[in-house]
Amino acid sequence: MTDAMVFLFATMITLPFLAWYIVYIITVKWTKRKGKAIRLAADSSTILFIGSVHFLANVIWGESFFGIIIIIILLIAAIFTILHYRSREEVEFVKLMKGIWRFNFFLFFTVYFLLAFYGMTSYLLSAFLA
User: Fold this and answer.
1) Residues 30, 23: contact at Cβ < 8 Å?
2) In the chain, count of helices (H) and strands (E)?
3) pTM above the 0.85 mark?
């Protein structure tokens, strides 16, 4: 049972898009609402994309960028909080957290695919040109 859990966790960290898609399909089948399914899938897979970016960067460059990732997330949170306060003069915590979380999803979703493309390209180039 432990091996199955490790395999599942490793797969979800390695392929977070698969986790996003599974949550999306289950939610669409259950609620029949595609918009809600997309939001729920994004919300539930954000942490997987963040972890995947960390592990991809670690594999590509051999260094941990976890501290930089945390700083980026905190910087995004600070910027969103300032913008939210300036536009509404009152901080609505739930809306603010949803905005921060979903922006992080789009950011790390994009970075994940850029790093995956870069990693595969650099590996193939080094394999064929070396």
Assistant:
1) no
2) 5, 0
3) yes
